Amino acid sequence: MKTITVNKNVLSKNDEIAARNKSSLSGRGIRMFNLLGSPGSGKTTLLESALAHESVDKSKIAVIEGDLFTDFDAKRMDEIGIRTIQLNTEGACHLEADMVERGIDELDLEGIETLIVDNIGNLVCTASFSLGEHYRIAVTSVTEGNDKPLKYPKLFKTADYVVINKIDLLPFTNFDVDRFTADVHSLNPNAKVFTCSAFKGEGMEAIADLFMNH
Amino acid sequence: MKTITVNKNVLSKNDEIAARNKSSLSGRGIRMFNLLGSPGSGKTTLLESALAHESVDKSKIAVIEGDLFTDFDAKRMDEIGIRTIQLNTEGACHLEADMVERGIDELDLEGIETLIVDNIGNLVCTASFSLGEHYRIAVTSVTEGNDKPLKYPKLFKTADYVVINKIDLLPFTNFDVDRFTADVHSLNPNAKVFTCSAFKGEGMEAIADLFMNH
Description:
The structure is a homodimer. By secondary structure, chain A is α/β, with parallel strands linked by helices. Chain A is 37% helix and 19% strand. The first copy, chain A, is built from eight helices and seven strands; from the N terminus they run αβαβαβαββααβαβα. In chain A, strands 3-2-4-1-5-6-7 form a seven-stranded parallel beta sheet, with helices on both faces. In chain A, strand 2, helix 3 and strand 3 form a beta-alpha-beta unit. In chain A, helix 1 runs parallel beside helix 4 and helix 2 (43-51) crosses helix 8 (204-212). The longest helix of chain A has 22 residues, at 6-27. The radius of gyration of chain A is 17 Å and the shape is globular. Chain A starts with 5 loop residues before the first helix and ends with a helix. The A-B interface holds A 6, 38-40, 42, 67-70, 72, 91, 93, 120-125, 140-141, 143-145, 147-148, 150-154, 166, 168-169, 172-174, 199 and B 6, 38-40, 42, 67-70, 72, 91, 93, 120-125, 140-141, 143-145, 147-148, 150-154, 166, 168-169, 172-174, 199.
C-alpha cells in the first residue's frame, strides 16, 4: 500500500520557492511584507493611507495585489503612484510562493526597497503559505470582534506585526483592545501590536515607518 | 501516465454526502440553512439576535457551530437555550458534508424544524462545499466594503439570501447599500437581500421569519 501525503508535498515545494524568493530579494536589498487578514479588514485601505504619508518615498515601494478576481486593488495602488501588479488566482483561496515569484519576475524592482504583498482576504488558508516574506502583518479590525486570535490562531502565531484597524469605530462596538492584545500575546509574545484607522488616517505614521525603516 | 483529479473526487464525494444529508433532513420535515461569511461578519451575533425574537419557537431550532478551534460559539447558543453542537475542524478552512452528517447524528433533532449551520468564517473555501442545505445565507457587513460581491463571486452567486449586517455603522463608512445590492443581483438576480443590525437588534423580525417560516 502506498501513502501519498499530498499536503506535505505541496507545503514543502512552496517552502522551497519561498526561500528562493526571500534570498533573491535579500540579495537585492529588498524587504518583503506579507499582509494578511479577513476580507474587508482594510488591508488595501491601510496601504493607501500609509503609503500616502509624507514620510514615504513612493519610488522605493512596490505592491503585489492578490485577489481571486478583479483588478480593483491594483488600480487603487496605481492611482496613488505605487508600482504594482495584480495576481488573480481565479478562485484559489490564498497566494502561494510560486505566484509571488511570477509577480516578482514581472515587476520592475529597480530602486525598490520594500515589496508589499496584499494577500487574498482569508484568515485561514493564507496563513499556511509562506511567500518568502521577511515580515508578516496580520490586519484585523475592531468590527470583527474580540474572538479572532483564539479562533484563528495560526495567523496570529506567525505574524510579526498585528494591526488593529478601524479604531474610529471602537465606540460603536463591544471590542476590547486590551483583551484582544492579551490574546494575541498569549499566542505570540513577540508580536508588535498597532492600532489605527486607515479610513480616517489615524495612526498611519507608525505603519509608514514600518514600511520605510525595517 | 495516470492523472488523478483530486479536487473533483473530493467535491463529488462531498456532493454525495450532502445529498444524503438533505434527503434525510427533508424526510424528517427539517430545513437546513448554511450561514456563510467573513470572520467577524456577525454570523453568530445574527443567530443570537434573530433567535431571541419573540416570534421564534426555540424548541424547533437547532444549530451546528463550525470553527477551527474553540467552543465559544456553541456556548453562546447554549446560553440562549438553543440545542447546539460544536464542530472543530482543527485548522481546516471550511465545513464539509461529512462533518455536518456527524453533527446531525449527534444532535437530538426530535421536534426540530430548522437546523442552522454556522459555518467557518471564510468567504472563499466554504462556498465550494454544499453541506446538503436547503437554503444558503451569505452574511456580510457594511464595514467590509462594497467590493466583496465581485471579488468573491462564488458565495454571492450561490446564496439564496444575502444579509447586510451592521447597518447601524453605515453613517461611519463609505458603504453604498444600493451599489452592493446591484452587484449581488448582477451575479444572482434571485438572491433576496436583507439589511439589519444584529448587534442593535434592528431588522431581526424578517430574519426570524426566514428561519421560522420557510
